[in-house]
Amino acid sequence: MTRATRSDPEGSGGMARNTLRKVFGVGPIGVAISVMLLLAALAIDRALGHPRITDHSSLIKIIGAILVSIGLILYLWAVYTLRGWWLENRLCTSGPFRWFRHPVYAAWITFILAGVALYLNSWVLLIWVVSLHPVWHWLVIGEEKMMVEHFGDEYRRYAERTGRFIPRLFSVRRAGKRSHQRTASQK
Question: For 2, which of 11, 22, 42, 135 could close a Cys bridge (C-beta 3.0–4.6 Å)?
Fold first, then answer.
């Protein structure tokens, strides 16, 4: 049994939990929920007789394969980028983290799983993928609170300019300020 100290109020067990949380985040819980929802979606898909998105499956398979490829590239890029920053205990804002706060999760729920649903030409699986977004948005709130506690205003500013799972290519707030500045300068 480990004893808590002032420098380690939770004992070394708390440190191990924090390390696991830092490595895996909400991933294991999110995967479990996603798999449960997938099983329900597959049962519904089977009961409905696999309603297709389109009868022209070759085009939809190509689009699905492209999304899966993009997702795999994003996933590998995010893991590669994050590895160095994680070891230095700094906020990662480069690579895919420039546009996404959670590119590893985004790779799966925005690209790979959507691509699989399209490749399989299934309305039910596509609805399943769309339903995953609010679930994962809810799940990462705790992760983001932890990031604010650790990085403070640096993370808040980062969150304002990046999307969670869909890239924010421009900041609405910044765009609004620019248009307001132009209007003021034109007067």
Answer: 11
Total number of domains in the chain: 1
Q: Is residue 15 part of a domain?
A: no
Number of neighbours of residue 80 by Cβ within 10 angstroms: 11
CA dihedral 172, 174, 177, 179 (to 10 degrees): -70
Helix (H, G, I), strand (E, B) or coil at 186: helix
How far is residue 122's CA from residue 113's CA, in Å, rounded to a whole number? 12
Domain membership of residue 37 (yes or no) is: yes
Q: Choose the weakest-confidence range: 19-33, 78-92, 97-111.
A: 19-33
Q: Are 124 and 47 in contact (CB under 8 A)?
A: no
Residue 48 forms part of a structural domain = yes
Q: In the block, which residue shows the tokens 């808040």? A: 156
What's the pLDDT score for residue 171? 53
Instruction: Name the pTM for this structure.
Output: 0.75
Residue 14 maps to a domain: no
pLDDT for residue 65: 97
Q: Which residues contact 68 (CB under 8 A, 6 or more apart)?
A: 111, 112, 115, 116, 119
Residue 44: domain span: 24-168
Structure tokens at 3: 């004893």
